């Protein structure tokens, strides 16, 4: 089944609210190799994705941005997929950054509470749609794999370790990365098997 028809059954990337970030690099990318997972380092509460997106867009915006911000209620786009967000030095030019409401210091139990599970479910649907659109395999890319140019899903922590251009450790050791990857792979397979 073509990706476009699969995507219509899943997450609507084109219907995501857009609050343009102030800082990014305009581009016309026709290839993306990575989905990079982040934590926003902000509270888990309603409106977090929109507030962080507005911060990226604001007059006093940091010299940073991400493609998407996700909380329990909404996904907000901050940078178009074809453009380069400033989210993970070393993987900016070939990656799409997803920011999650929460903090890198959260434990596995804290990532498993009701709010975080709603964030993760929304993020999974987004990641599946991105993997479909950009032909990104639903596999983990470790620091060694990043240096080797592998395609897949990674974290800001792994990008920091691979390229040593930042010291960020998000989304943190408590983030349920193995579970997340298994779910993305299973959801992709389920979509592809639909008539």
Spell out the blueprint of helices and strands.
Elements: H1 3-9, E1 24-25, E2 34-39, H2 48-57, E3 68-70, E4 75-77, E5 84-85, E6 95-100, H3 108-111, H4 114-134, H5 143-148, E7 152-155, H6 156-163, H7 177-193
Parallel strand pairs: 2-6, 2-7, 3-6
Antiparallel strand pairs: 1-5, 3-4
Helix pairs in contact: 4-7
How would you portray this structure in words?
- The chain has 195 residues and is α/β, with parallel strands linked by helices.
- Helix content is 37%, strand content 13%.
- It contains seven helices and seven strands; from the N terminus they run H-E-E-H-E-E-E-E-H-H-H-E-H-H.
- The protein has helices at 3-9, 48-57, 108-111, 114-134, 143-148, 156-163, 177-193, and strands at residues 24-25, 34-39, 68-70, 75-77, 84-85, 95-100, 152-155.
- The strands form two sheets. It has a five-stranded mixed β-sheet. It has a two-stranded antiparallel ribbon with strand order 1-5.
- Helix 4 (114-134) packs across helix 7 (177-193).
- The longest helix has 21 residues, at 114-134.
- The protein is globular, with a radius of gyration of 15 Å.
- Residues 1-8 have low confidence and may be disordered.
Provide a concise account of the structure shown.
With 195 residues, the chain is α/β, with parallel strands linked by helices.
């Amino acid at each position: 089944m073509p990706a476009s028809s699969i995507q219509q059954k899943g997450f609507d990337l084109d219907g995501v609210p857009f609050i343009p970030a102030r800082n990014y690099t305009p581009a016309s990318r026709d290839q993306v190799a990575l989905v990079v997972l982040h934590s926003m380092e902000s509270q888990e509460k309603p409106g977090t994705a929109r507030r962080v997106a507005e911060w990226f867009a604001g007059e006093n915006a940091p010299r940073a941005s991400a493609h998407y911000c996700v909380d329990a209620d909404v996904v907000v786009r901050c940078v178009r997929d074809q453009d380069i967000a400033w989210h993970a030095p070393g993987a900016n030019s070939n990656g799409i950054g997803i920011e999650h409401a929460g903090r890198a210091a959260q434990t596995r139990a804290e990532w498993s509470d009701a709010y975080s599970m709603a964030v993760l479910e929304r993020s999974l649907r987004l990641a599946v749609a991105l993997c479909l659109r950009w032909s990104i395999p639903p596999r983990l890319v470790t620091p060694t794999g990043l240096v080797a140019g592998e395609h897949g899903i990674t974290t800001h922590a792994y990008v920091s370790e691979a390229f040593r251009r930042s010291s960020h450790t998000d989304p943190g050791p408590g983030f349920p990365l193995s579970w997340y990857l298994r779910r993305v792979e299973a959801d992709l397979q389920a979509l592809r098997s639909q008539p």
